[in-house]
Amino acid sequence: MWGINPTATTGRGWPSACPLPTGLPGKGFSVPQSLAQVLVHLIFSTKNREPFLSDDIRPELHPYMATILKGMDSSAILINSVEDHAHVLFHLSKNHALCDVIESLKKDSSKWIKTKGRNYRNFHWQS
Known about the structure:
The protein contains 2 helices and 3 strands, in the order βαββα. It has 127 residues and is an alpha+beta fold. The chain has a domain at 38-120: Alpha-Beta Plaits (2-Layer Sandwich). Strands 1-3-2 form a 3-stranded antiparallel beta sheet, covered by helices on one side. α1 runs antiparallel to α2. The longest helix is centred in the C-terminal third of the chain and has 17 residues, at 98-114. The two termini are 38 Å apart.
């Protein structure tokens, strides 16, 4: 694992290649800012794999999904779909749980698709 001997520890369970913090807070001890970036590749299908996502709806659907994600502080990287499923690659916000982002994306896009005409009135995403 990255050249670290997992059996060689410092006595506190840390691998010996990881430096232990020294000093006390306020006494020369500084904690650097931690940054994380979580990318999510979400794939979900239409209910029963029905081919609802036709060529005429997809050019509007993808930007609409990006807008939903932006509203959840999660920026879309790439959104694509075929007739029966969608792929969404996005940065997950640190302010929202993944399940909440997915719920909002599926619920709001489903409501929007149903406004696009009679052909879409029975549209649903998979459970």
